[in-house]
Amino acid sequence: MIRSVIAGIGMYVPEQVVTNQDLLKYMDTSDAWIQERTGIQERRYAHRTQETTTTMAVEASRIAIERAGITPQDIDFIVFATLSPDYYFPGCGVLLQRAMKMREIGALDVRNQCSGFVYALSVADQFIRTGTYKNILVVGSEKHSFGLDFTTRGRNVSVIFGDGAGAVVLQPSTEEGRGILSTHLHSDGDSAEILAMYNPGTHANHWKEEKYADFDDAEIGQMFFSHAMIDNGQIYPYMDGPAVFKKAVIKFPEVIMEALQANNLGPADINMLIPHQANLRIAQFVQQKLGLGDHQVYNNIQRYGNTTAASVPIALCEAWQEGRVKPGDLVCLAAFGSGFTWASALLRW
Q1: Which CATH number applies to 3-173?
Q2: Active site residue 232
Q3: pLDDT value, residue 212
Q4: Could you confirm whether 114 is annotated as catalytic?
Q5: Catalytic residue among 114, 184, 199, 317
Q6: What is the pLDDT of residue 199?
């Protein structure tokens, strides 16, 4: 049986460290307030003009490719997950292909936000299993800092997010008991607007509610981006935090158990759970729900904040670098986020 294995892994985070204390310059908040609600102590911000979602992806990808013992010319497909692309279009996949001077290979962009990397990994896994490709570069990269509301109005969202990138090279293997065992993907769009960035967008007046109370139908129908949107703070991400939390603490453990049960395993069999770094309180709840010890769960949101699609590969890379993920270990990756979408992947390292 052909299975997908992670042959190389890499990560990149910007040099600039932004502490909770640093954010006090821009908004009414406190270190205690942020840590109590999220567990975050600091995050990294990319350089405003010299770093992009793609350039960070390049740095992570170079490390992953080198650790896989191959060159960029050996990569035959790219799956790039991000919610913060360099451009509205084209996607970051082709920009990464260009920047790394790869062959004219396929490049697929995945827009599943916090679940993006696990979704991307699942897509790549199918290509590997069917023999379509041999060296797939799977990337999660985000530059959130460029589009956050650094005022008291936006503090509930802005204190959470950071920048960074992670990447893996997926290859086929017939080695017994190694590789991706299964992946599990879900979505429920009923509450899509609870965590979303509405503008710029093509919805016009389709979602006309209190967000557009100041505009009539004619104005809304013509707007893709306007000064009024800027003035009213409608160009920034929106999140109903409590509602997201309530959904996450249900679906996170569900999708983890789904992966374990599909492989006739239980929580005690997990050597390392890498949850999406959305909120330390969510991760701690999931850990308690599944009865996992501290040695079975890896969290680094304290240092990097929520890096959305990049959070799982960054955490996985750090855990591996620290020797907490070893050959033969059962590793579970899980994520929940905007959409809502949620996903898990179970693999034997």
Answers
A1: 3.40.47.10
A2: no
A3: 47
A4: yes
A5: 114
A6: 81
